[in-house]
Amino acid sequence: MRTLLRFLVSRPLLAAAGLTLLLPLPAPAQHSRHQVRWVHNDRSVQVEVNGEVEFSETDTEVVRLSPGGRFMLEERRPDRPTHRIEYTSTGSDLRETFSVEGRPRALDAEGRAWLAALLPEVVRETAIGAEGRITRILARRGVVGVIEEIERIRSDSARRIYYRHLLARHELDARAQARALRSAGQRIGSDGDKSSLLREVGRSLNLEDAQLRGAYFEAVGTISSDGDHASVLRALLDRAAASDAFFTTWLASAQTISSDGDKASLLTRAAVRTDRLQSESVRRAFFGAAGTIRSDGDRQRVLTAVLRAEPATSPVAIEAMRNAAGIHSDGDKAAVLLAVPPRLLPDPAVRRAYEETARSIASDGDRARVLNHLTRYAKGLEVRRGSR
Q1: What average pLDDT does this structure show over 107-123?
Q2: Please, which residues bridge with residue 85 across strands?
Q3: How many CB atoms lie within 10 A of CB 377?
Q4: What is the dihedral of CA 240, 246, 247, 248, to 10 degrees?
Q5: Do 96 and 87 contact (CB within 8 A), yes or no?
Q6: Is residue 225 a contact partner of residue 259, using CB atoms and an 8 Å limit?
Q7: 324 with 336: CB under 8 angstroms?
Q8: What is the dihedral of CA 165, 168, 170, 175, to 10 degrees?
Q9: Stretch 350-358: mean pLDDT, rounded?
Q10: Angle (deg, nearest 10), helices 260-270 and 280-290
Q11: Beta strands per DSSP E along the chain
Q12: Which residues neighbour 80 within 8 Å (Cβ) at sequence distance 6 or greater?
């Protein structure tokens, strides 16, 4: 089996742990150009490709170039001479030019050993032909072998590509997918690459499977950046068939986000899923997360959003008002009470929760305003206007 590869002009994707790497992008059907260069410590490897190139099954040789194509590989390091090999094609013929320290020489046994050692590393570190390599490794060593190969890679961007292709394999069961997700959570250091991977695979994975859902959200929990963490959860929010178990786990993950703004933005979007809030477990998780928002304005925004969503119910309104009692700002607390749907105010349980929260308002003006609102929409009810 041979690996057919196409390349596009490169862009920088990673600079971490002393490794600077340019990775391939999806390529067009016609000729394309690509440059790869990485530097690790004092070692530099550079690859230039023009056209289509095929490697051997072991990734140790270049076996074909498209007509007019070119492939160049060069390695510079302080402890040995600079090695360079260039392949060109004028049709069906493949021509190779090998040099050491700029002096041309035949590709002898030493040169072939250098190429056989370096080329697989180049293919691995740049994620060139990742999908095909995964197929071959799976056949020989299974999922464990693929994960071991991925864990040898230094580049987070390349790891992301390998994990994405692995998790897309239809023959993997939930246990194997969970193992790959846990490995990705531990091995990908870049929050950007990790969140990108989880957003991509989250669209297709069966997150209703408890084992797989646990591994997925475990990986999400390893993202340090609140923005990247929130971006993954945001991408999952529109899953139409999400179960109560999924939504409860999603809310537990949202609760761990430190940023009030990011957390409030997620919960505000989740607030429109009032169908899910009819479940006691989901409702408890939602308001538990809302209760960890320190900013009065952000918490008020979440609570008013859930009260204005249709159809808000009495249990939802009661929990929202109890949650509002933890808001310090009298104005924000009053805003939550004024957002309670008037149709719910005749409910005795709703009225009691409303009055209890109203009594926690220190401002006479704000407290009078919310109690007048209650009187207006619940005529005939005795409203207790006791001061704090």
Answers
A1: 94
A2: 73, 98
A3: 15
A4: 170
A5: yes
A6: no
A7: yes
A8: 100
A9: 97
A10: 150
A11: 3-5, 11-16, 19-23, 33-40, 43-50, 53-55, 62-65, 70-77, 80-89, 94-100, 103-105
A12: none
Please tell me the distance from the alpha carbon of residue 50 to that of residue 312, in angstroms, as a whole number.
Answer: 61
Residue-level pLDDT at 2: 43
Instruction: Dig out the tokens for 332 from the structure.
Output: 């924000």
Query: Which DSSP string do the residues of 213-242 spell out, in sequence order?
Result: HHHHHHHHTT---HHHHHHHHHHHTT-TT-
Alpha-carbon distance 184 to 220, whole Å? 10
Averaged pLDDT for residues 277-297: 96
Q: How far is CA 300 from CA 37, 129, 335, 339, in A?
A: 51, 50, 7, 10
pTM over 0.85: no
* Chain Cα centroid distance, residue 2: 32
* 336 sits in which H/E element: helix 330-338
Instruction: Point out which residues pair with 15 in neighbouring strands.
Output: 20
Choose between 106 and 10: higher pLDDT.
106
**What pLDDT does 92 receive?**
79
First vs last C-alpha separation in the chain: 80
Greater confidence, 301 or 242? Answer: 301
Tell me if residue 329 falls in helix, strand or coil: coil
